[in-house]
Amino acid sequence: MDFADIAITFDKLESTSARLEMTDILAEFFSRCPAKELRSIIYLSQGKLHPDFYGVELGMADKLVLKAISLTSGKPDAVVEELWLKTGDPGQVAEQLITKKKQMTLFSEPLTLDRVIKSLTLIETAEGKDSQDRKMKHLASLLHDSGPLEARYLCRIVTGRMRVGASTMTILDALAITYATKESRPEIERAFNVTCDLGLVAETLATDGMEGISKIKVTVGDPVKVMLAERLPSIAEVVEKMGGECAIEYKYDGIRAQVHIGKDSVKIYSRRLEDLTPNFPDIAEAVKAHFKGTEAIIEGECVAVDSETGYMQSFQEVTHRRRKHGMSDAVKEIPVRIFMFDILYVDGKDMTNVPYLQRREAIKEWFDISDNVQMSTMRIVHSVQEAEDFFEDAVNARCEGVMAKSIADTSIYRAGSRGFLWIKYKKDYQESLTDSFDLTVVGAFYGMGKRAGKYGALLMATYDPETGRYGTVCKLGTGFDDAFLDNLPNLLDMYKSPEIPQSLDAKMQPDVWFQPAVVLEVVAAEITLSPNHTAGLGVLKEDTGIGIRFPRFTGRVRDDKGPDQCTTVQEIIEMYEMQSHDSDGLS
Ligand code: ATP
Hints:
Number of helices: 21
Number of domains: 3
Number of strands: 21
Distance between the termini: 61 Å
Bound molecules: adenosine-5'-triphosphate
CATH topology of the largest domain: D-amino Acid Aminotransferase, Chain A, domain 1
Largest sheet: 8 strands, mixed
Shape: globular
Structural class: alpha+beta
CATH architecture of the largest domain: 2-Layer Sandwich
């Protein structure tokens, strides 16, 4: 396929924000795509050559890309740089300077998808002496045979700026329409949730249809989208919702780890599919050593423990492991334990459809327990009183609360879904009406007085998975210490956007826009209806969104979450309804 055809489609997607229109554009395009090329195209639309969890970035520095643009366009470095300073986007620079596709000559080659992938692979794998120069030349050679639009996307792909706006859910919609039926959409999404590999799902569907999709199973090495919990405002409601009896586990305050034990290797994935193995080499080794079979996928929470007292430490401690460079020192200084709470696969058996209590039995059966590999503490409770007693034990053991889990036969592991089979209840809920929120930064306002010249407040947004769009909920200016404020440009500036991000709806106008990327944890006094904010606009009241009042940063940067894993609009609306129900004195 000609890369120009792909670039035209990316451009069409970028020019709309309506999900249905994007679905139509994609479906029309997929119907013309050769099945064997679909996989690469899907990865490219996300700016990658592989699924997300490979963790490999093309990551060319802007300066290097500018050099390639200068070489191809014949424009002096100063002109290229000036345009880059103005736009902040090498894609736009390339588009403006590479004005039209040159006539084919003896020295040019058609710019096919195949050629683009080969060159990008060379860029990705270039190492050692002269590697920067080689990368630059591979890109220049592609640009030489590009028109302006192809140049825009090539430069965005290599610098990690590819955002065409179509969310995973929209791509799944379009795949279902093109290769199956709308009714098959849940089964296609299931295949994605158990592999986290959109390219694989697309290729399977295009090649083998729904029969191929039904064969996609949990596989060691491919991360599974994690199951998540709902929340309720009181233990009594949790027990009632569970039908009077349920399992309750400690809710540990650490980092979720999905451990894939293979025949020869172990890999630990975070909930946003990053490879955590280098941060927890001791846990990887211990989990493998304590496993009695050959292959398994388990989930647990990695928690730091005090090396002297053995007490569990807060989340902040375990994140220090992620930031330390000398890992062997960190392993000694910050001992970590894993508390296993689920098993998704073991020696040829997909466990995700097995009920909760049997999954727990399987963990006990297949693993030896030791000091650093333990099971989560669990009790089956039959009354509110028993649940409250257990909650107190959990808080005394320094946990953040409890996770109630259904013990019904229907209590399977629902990859990628947040539902009432698991319900969390945290000690924070006793102090405030709402849970904390994980929100993404989409803008900044310059400060005044002591904060003059620095970012003084941030515009925060939440995600709506149903529309694939972000909406604002508050302006956040409290809870930052001086060190954090000083560090904000380091944290945020790489996501600066010259205009409002395409996936965001906002009424407020900050001084600087950011692409949704960084997630911060925020607590607040109240959720309100707000005419200034756009999250859930019109859902509860016409032209009015949902806002959160008196927000305060807790000090926790949620680098374990991507922006699309923020607290969703639907969750905030649920919390709003819980809060109104609470203040009516009904609970
Ligand atoms: P939070 O910010 O409350 O951790 P979350 O959005 O990350 O929420 P939830 O599904 O709401 O995810 O809460 C579940 C999280 O709690 C899991 O992602 C996991 O990291 C953690 N956790 C701690 N102990 C347990 C447990 N026993 N069972 C399941 N999850 C647990």
